[in-house]
Design a protein that fits this description.
With about 150 residues, this protein is of the alpha+beta class. The chain has a single domain, classed as Aldehyde Oxidoreductase, domain 3 (Alpha-Beta Complex). It has three helices and eight strands. Strands 1, 2, 3, 4, 5, 6, 7 and 8 form an eight-stranded mixed beta sheet that branches. α2 packs antiparallel against α3. The longest helix is centred in the middle third of the chain and has 18 residues. It starts with 10 loop residues before the first strand and ends with a strand.
Length: about 150
Amino acid sequence: MKKHNCIKNIFRTGAISSEFIGNAIAKHQSKTTIGAHQIFLGQVRADEIEGKKVSAIAYTAYEEMANAKMHEIRETTFSKYNLTCMHIYHSLGTVKAGEICLFVFVSSPRRKECFKAIEFVVEEIKKEVAIFGKEIFEDQTHQWKVNS
């Protein structure tokens, strides 16, 4: 099992751009022991709630606690699945409907490990990591988002 000693900061200000995602993928082309990548992109939905449409989500977090918990999830994932590498980024601040707020990228010699690992990681993030979203409606009212 790989041990990763440093706790990484998973947070980025604002939406995660397609350029950032593309660059992350491109950096892995030199790693020739990788046979598969799996990516999960979480996008802000323009949900309609009680007749009002979500225009954005403002994300906040207990950053130190969230990064520590993410480190635990990361270590658990590496112990359960044969991964070469894993990258996780989550937005802080306001992200508009249609923009990306979560980017999870796992790589492995084999595809099946990637499929299992990505689902595990995303579910654990949603369940365990102290990240909070305030839904902002088109009329500028807001409410705290409940994860589903």
